Amino acid sequence: MTSLWRQRPVGIVGLGLIGGSLALDLRQAGARVHAVVHRERTALRAEQRRLADRISLDPAVLQDCGLVILALPLDQLLNPDPRLIRALPADGVVTDVGSVKQPVLRQWSSLPRFVGSHPMAGTARAGVDAGEAGLFRGRPWVATPCRTTDPEALEAVRQMAVQLEARWVCCEAAEHDRAVALVSHLPVLVSAALIATADAGAAAAAEPGLPALARLLASSGFADTTRVGGGNPRLGTLMAQSNREAVLQALGTYQKAISTLQEHVLQENWGLLEETLGRCAELRTDFL
Amino acid sequence: MTSLWRQRPVGIVGLGLIGGSLALDLRQAGARVHAVVHRERTALRAEQRRLADRISLDPAVLQDCGLVILALPLDQLLNPDPRLIRALPADGVVTDVGSVKQPVLRQWSSLPRFVGSHPMAGTARAGVDAGEAGLFRGRPWVATPCRTTDPEALEAVRQMAVQLEARWVCCEAAEHDRAVALVSHLPVLVSAALIATADAGAAAAAEPGLPALARLLASSGFADTTRVGGGNPRLGTLMAQSNREAVLQALGTYQKAISTLQEHVLQENWGLLEETLGRCAELRTDFL
Q1: Are the CB atoms for A12 and A37 separated by under 8 Å?
Q2: Each residue of A165-201: pLDDT tens digit?
Q3: C-alpha–C-alpha distance, residues A148 and A154, integer Å
Q4: Could you identify which of A152, A225, B28, B80 might form a hypothetical disulfide with B187, taking C-beta atoms 3.0 to 4.6 angstroms apart as the criterion?
């Protein structure tokens, strides 16, 4: 890895939150960073922020890179520009940061030194101004090697993740996708449905003042529970689309959980309801 | 109101988060505060914090009060100690801070100068150390007068809320309860069901590593969406119990919202899903 860093530049495709943060950390660690962006305006701003040593709209800037990180939005990652594919260095290690891994592997694993990976870090920000140093510190960086993954390529990505102080985790792509369906994609739908319900439930009420009153009384609990459901609709849709099977399974399990709570309330099983809520409170500490 | 404050003490029953915060603000505003607490230990700690001018385990301390605020947990408010009822000053204004209003009115509205109210303020803290100055500033303080409510008593409570810089809101108890079912009680159940699903969905998977992986990958989105579902199970149960009808109605509407999202994913209606999520994102800004 040291040789990959010192002797050859690291390529980053996309300088949004993840790409920009990677660029800052990698330069800090002594790497030369060559970045590809989509728009002239992004390139100018990235130059101002000194995110990379070379910034270009032309993927040819990647030609000497020993390691290339595809830090693209999921839709672009799954439908890559053919010019980008042609410009990737033939002997370079290539990895990605996509939040769903099976379709990424289907798209990319024919590349000889490709490693699927997903650094689990984020903020509410996006775009060329969002990148920040130290974003990956202490956060899981999940790699999903498959049968054909080159062990040296995997090791190169691991060393980068460790350099950025991320917590390295390896698992199968299917396992990753099922886990993120439960803890990352399902929350978006659960949370969006709550917003829709607060609106529809108030609008359907007999009291004409209810929509305004519900809006007035919504407080920090509502804000927290609906935050991810009020996020980028394109991103939410892409997650559901690219992880459809696991998301549907999670939704099915979720509907059973809601029905169980509903049944306790309907049957006035207050002891059981309190027991269930108590178990949830305990479980939550396991997760966080 | 000025006379109520200057000439006669204000009584507070309970010095938890709400009662303690009220006590601090009211003393700051120049009131003499007489407080009743349940335990000797609480009384000692409240004395140390100088929460009130007089603190007693005996509700007789309320006898001269012109205004008494029942800052009790919902279950104690709905099943009050007969000694407390007997000790309330016959000519005093009495109000409460309960988060569900119809059962409170059923219990208390026979009191001649009772006003149902609900200051919508909270933090994650509870107990005698939780009270803080300025908690009600800018927050809604909902009063739910009914046909028999004494207008002077209502005005006394309004003046107190305004003194604490809360936003005074009047509505019917049924309307209040329906609104909080949607924006406060439903989120608890939605959020708890998500925790239960992350656990059950991972446990049911074929991959033995999934429960550990899901726990490892749960991040800030999961943390926010599950915060209220991981709260006090007794409080969540009391809310559902005392607001059962509105909570059941909200759950019914919620299940339809989840089914709509599920249907979009099942039918691969990605345009409709994105449209729905976009509408939720817009709606959320209305609420917050």
Answers
A1: no
A2: 999 999 999 999 999 999 999 999 999 999 999 999 9
A3: 11
A4: A225
The residue of B277, B285, B286, B288 whose CB has the most chain A CBs within 10 angstroms, and thus the best one to mutate to test that interface, is B277
Contacts of A194 (CB under 8 A, 6+ apart): A222, A225, A226, A229, B186, B187, B190, B254, B257
Asked casually if ipTM beats, i.e. exceeds, 0.90, the reply is yes
Other Cβ atoms within 10 Å of A209 Cβ, number: 14
The alpha carbon of A147 is separated from its chain's Cα centroid by a whole number of angstroms, namely: 24
Which residues does residue A140 pair with via DSSP β-bridges, in sequence order?
A: A167
Q: What angle do CA B263, A79, A57 make, to 5 degrees?
A: 135
**C-alpha dist (Å) from residue B209 to A133, A162, A176, B151, B240:** 32, 22, 10, 63, 35
Nearest to B33 by CA among B5, B2, B71, B1: B5
Residue of A176, A189, A200 with shortest CB distance to B261: A189
Query: Within a 10 A sphere around the Cβ of A133, how many other Cβ atoms?
Result: 14
pLDDT confidence of residue B23? 98
CA distance A189 to chain B (A): 7
Among A142, A176, A188, A213, the strongest candidate for a mutation testing the B interface, having the largest count of B CBs within 10 A, is A213
Question: In chain A, what residues touch B199 (CB-CB under 8 Å)?
Answer: 283, 286
Tens digit of each residue's pLDDT (9 = 90 or more) over B86-101: 999 999 999 999 999 9
Q: Which helix (H) or strand (E) segment is B169 a member of?
A: strand B167-170
Round to whole Å and give the CA distance between B265 and B255: 15
Helices (H), chain B: 2-7, 17-28, 40-48, 74-78, 82-87, 102-108, 151-163, 173-180, 186-204, 210-217, 220-226, 233-242, 244-266, 270-287
Contact criterion met (CB below 8 Å) for A277 and B185: no
Answer positive or negative: Cα dihedral of B197, B201, B202, B203.
Answer: positive
For residues B116 and B100, give the distance between their C-alpha atoms in angstroms, rounded to a whole number: 10
CA distance A107 to A249: 23
pLDDT per residue over A29-41, tens digit each? 999 999 999 999 9
Spatial separation of the C-alpha atoms in residues B235 and B250, rounded to whole Å: 18
Which tokens in the block code for residue A14? 């996309």
Determine the distance in angstroms separating the CA of A89 from the nearest CA of chain B, rounded to an integer.
32
